[in-house]
Design goal:
The chain is mostly helical. It has helices spanning 5-28, 30-56, 62-106. It has a domain at 10-59. 90% of the residues lie in helices and 0% in strands.
Length: 107
């Protein structure tokens, strides 16, 4: 079942025209605009109330959680670096001890 591409293009174009016309009519309607303003204010109030509720429940926000993740990653790197230092020192000490032994045996 093939549909003519030209027909689809015409339908799409007509749909866009209708959408633009309906949008323009709605935007010019003061009642619609007032309803939209009320909806946006309501949305803001809900977001604010949810934020306060989350804070009261001591649940971290997304930004706080990301900050904690970054801090944990930094601490893990720092810990890995600290763990690596004694290994380097131990390796150097073993090498020095072997050299001393070798020097004693040959000297």
């Amino acid at each position: 079942m093939t549909i003519d591409k030209n027909l689809l293009d015409r339908l799409k174009s007509r749909g866009e025209e209708v959408f633009t016309q309906v949008s323009a009519e709605l935007m010019s309607n003061p009642r619609f605009m007032k309803a939209m303003e009320g909806a946006l204010k309501g949305k803001e109030r809900v977001e604010e109330a949810v934020g306060q509720a989350i804070k009261r429940m001591n649940v971290p926000t997304r930004s706080e959680f990301k900050k904690a993740e970054k801090r944990i990653a930094a601490l893990e790197e720092e810990l890995a670096a600290l763990k690596a230092k004694p290994k380097k020192k131990a390796t150097r000490a073993k090498t020095a001890a072997r050299r001393k032994k070798a020097t004693r045996k040959t000297g």
